[in-house]
Write a structure and sequence with these properties.
This protein is an alpha/beta fold and about 350 residues long. It has 9 helices and 19 strands. It starts with a strand and ends in an 11-residue tail after the last strand. InterPro entries: Peptidyl-Arg-deiminase_porph.
């Protein structure tokens, strides 16, 4: 048997989004987050389709009209109906693997990051879409609690993650590190797990998801967050994380090419003043492009330059994510890539 977890740069059918509802935590920011999501849809559909989960027919009709008005051809988007709790498709969307040459979509248990938030509808969302024949690939349910933002892969059997998340007792309390690694091997085809034990972002609800801290750009390159301000409370932990990254080795024993992403100035919630988790590591790789979160900060340009160097041959597209971090995520957290062969071709007629 051959089993492989797809890297994000695998050719894609579409990007999945889950549109916020007026009764969700986004309610006070609904106009702002919808503007951000619209910008993402316009940007993504220049390169490939989007699958958007909506909560009722009224929202479906409104968004269909809106996207056409924004110049998005109807062949580039599909609006599917399903209940949801929130909009973080990275963590309730399916995780794609290739098993013996065939694509499978794994539906893991989602508990709202260890029971912090309601998640029953999000947890059922992938199965709801499968029942509607949205997917061409089979959907296989898994008993493990696992979020897409918690793992990153080079596509060659190596997985990067954090102990603060995957070994947190609020996820799979009966499984120790060896048992988690066994699950990742058996379910995702992972032969090596690289654990980071340091690094966090204030305001992050995910217990240090790897996609907020360090990401594979190709099998030999990792882009990571570096804090160069000794007065910042993140400095020591992120410096320790940088040391860990420098010590990591590829399977052939060679070091990784490490690309440091800049540190944006601190962002704070305008309502109560708590710090928000702004990070440039939360970029999204799509067919032909990389979408990069920006925060109206002087460091935005430097982050775009780093990622432009990391992804030769791809366009680098900035997306203003100041509204997104108000709910403690960023651009990558809102999305899930669906590799080629995932979706029913009838959704996007040529």
């Amino acid at each position: 048997m051959t089993l492989r977890l797809f890297p994000e740069w695998q050719p894609q059918d579409a990007i999945q989004l889950t549109w916020p509802t007026p009764t969700s935590d986004w309610a006070p920011l609904l106009e702002h987050i919808e503007a951000t999501l619209e910008a993402m849809v316009v940007a993504i559909t220049r390169y490939q389709p989007v699958l958007i989960v909506v909560h009722d027919e009224r929202q479906r009709e409104r968004l269909s009209t809106r996207f056409v008005a924004l110049g998005v051809t109807s062949r580039r988007f599909h609006l599917a109906l399903a209940d949801s709790d929130d909009s973080w498709a990275r963590d309730h969307g399916p995780i794609a693997v290739e098993r013996d040459g065939h694509l499978q979509l794994l539906d893991y248990v989602f508990t709202g990051w260890g029971g912090k938030f309601p998640a029953e509808r999000d947890d059922a969302l992938t199965r709801t879409l499968a029942d509607q024949q949205v997917f061409a690939a089979p959907v296989v349910s898994q008993a493990l609690i696992l979020e897409g933002g918690a793992i990153d892969t080079d596509g060659e059997g190596t997985l990067l993650t954090t102990s603060a998340c995957l070994l947190n007792p609020n996820r799979n309390p009966d499984l120790d590190r060896d048992a988690i690694e066994t699950c990742l091997n058996e379910q995702l085809g992972v032969s090596r797990v690289l654990w980071l034990h340091n690094g966090h972002l204030e305001g992050d609800d995910t217990d240090s998801h790897i996609d907020t801290l360090a990401r594979f750009c190709d099998p030999a390159t990792i882009a990571y967050v570096r804090c160069d301000d000794p007065e910042d409370p993140h400095h020591d932990a992120l410096t320790a994380m940088e040391t860990e990254l420098k010590a990591l080795r590829r399977e052939d024993g060679s070091p990784y090419r490490l690309l440091a992403l800049p540190w944006p100035k601190a962002c704070f919630d305008p309502e109560d003043g708590h710090r928000l988790p702004a990070t440039y590591a939360n970029f999204l790789i799509i067919n032909g492009a990389v979408l990069v979160p920006t925060y109206g900060d002087a460091a935005d340009f430097r982050a775009l330059k780093v990622l432009d160097d990391a992804f030769p041959g791809r366009d680098v597209v900035p997306i203003d994510c100041r509204a997104v971090i108000r709910q403690h995520g960023s651009l990558h957290c809102l999305t899930m890539q669906l590799p080629r062969g995932s979706l029913n071709p009838a959704l996007f007629p040529q």
